[in-house]
Amino acid sequence: AVKVLTTLRNHWKKTTFGVCLLSWGGNWLYGRHCDNLLRRAACQEAQAFGNQLIPSSMPLKKATVFLNPAACKGKARNLFEKNAAPILHLSGLDVTVVKTDYEGQAKKLLELMENTDLIIIAGGDGTVQEVLQELADANVNLLSSCVQAVFSKIPIGFIPLGKTCTLSHTLYPESTNQVQHITNATLAILKGETVPLDVLQIKGEKEQPVFAVTGLRWGSYRDAGVKVSKYWYLGPLKTKAAHFFSTFKEWPQKHQAALMYLGPTERPPEEPEEKPSRPPLYVRLYRRLRLYWSSPPKEIPQEVTPEDWEELKLSTIELSIATRNRQLDLTRTEDFMDICIEADTVSKGQFVNRGSQKMYDPHMCPEGSQCIQASRCILQLPEGTEGSFGIDNEEYEAMPVEVKLLPRKLRFFCDPRMREQILHAAVQ
């Protein structure tokens, strides 16, 4: 023992390196073991769903999974196959996986929608936006029926595999463990609890609109945030560096535009999920005969209320138009989107600090900003305006656009604990 201690002391550099290597290896193996335990527990829970008896005449539920293999720097496919796919197969679902790694597949996606019971999107925010857009692009004539009818009826599951997964903050509890986060999201799909989410329809100069479940950003914070990855060599300082160097171009940075908007709309009552039973044949015949022989009612002309548009000239460092999906309230009586117009009088220090905060919460509306609640708006940009919009973290050319709120158009699966939390917060 004395000889071993002497050797270790004489070669203290190698000893230190060996201890660090063994500690790291042990920690890595322990992490792998914990992940395997999480996967096993999730599979056992999924097996309980698969063991449930169903009538022989009832077909298996069909699930269509849209998987983006490029998400999470190309790791999404491996993450899905190791953590989510076993749970889905054990649950008894008839699973069809479609990879969204090539263009021109919109027609195929639309055909799949006619024969599926639920949709599962595996990827990040960009994948959600891409699937919505591909389905909309499939046929311009079927656009309204595609989004408003098909998606309103078919529930959607979201498995967070991407770098940015904004929807997961609303649908699932926070988790620092990626495996647990993915398995929780997959199990939430099996449990069947859903919440309605709003959609923004963004129509520009082109005929085809763009759809977003998070929102639109236009301004200096978004432009600086896109360049953060260029400063990867600065490690944890890369975010501040990107915003600091962007102040050298022009200061103060102002984005000028004209905004027209309509106020919130009253939320209609929930439609019953189960349709009333059809009355007997003799009742239907009696009603038709009575309607036929009765005198036609006099039509009372209804006054058409003109839309009350508000107009506003703005100069801002950043403008954001966001849904209320992050602050979900299932009991509110009005439907609206949040328009945040940030003041253009911030200092360079405030810009750098606030830019770091916006990397974690892109649609935060800082103190001193003008906040507007609207159901529809038109954004007019001056001629020659350059730059880009960020729509659900996807880049689009900046142009005049009309943004319309489609309230509660998508039903997403969520963790039952999150639904209870949302309802409890609404009651308070």
UniProtKB/TrEMBL annotation:
Q: Pinpoint the DAGKc domain residues.
A: 58-206
Q: Which Pfam families match?
A: AGK_C, DAGK_cat
GO annotation, biological process: ceramide biosynthetic process; glycerolipid metabolic process; sphingosine biosynthetic process
Query: By what name is this protein known?
Result: Acylglycerol kinase, mitochondrial
Single GO molecular function = ATP binding
**Does the record bear Cytoplasm in its keywords?**
no
Q: Which cofactors does the annotated protein need, by name?
A: Mg(2+)
Reaction(s) the record says it catalyses: 1,2-di-(9Z-octadecenoyl)-sn-glycerol + ATP = 1,2-di-(9Z-octadecenoyl)-sn-glycero-3-phosphate + ADP + H(+); a 1,2-diacyl-sn-glycerol + ATP = a 1,2-diacyl-sn-glycero-3-phosphate + ADP + H(+); an N-acylsphing-4-enine + ATP = an N-acylsphing-4-enine 1-phosphate + ADP + H(+); a monoacylglycerol + ATP = a monoacyl-sn-glycero-3-phosphate + ADP + H(+)
Membrane topology summary = Peripheral membrane protein
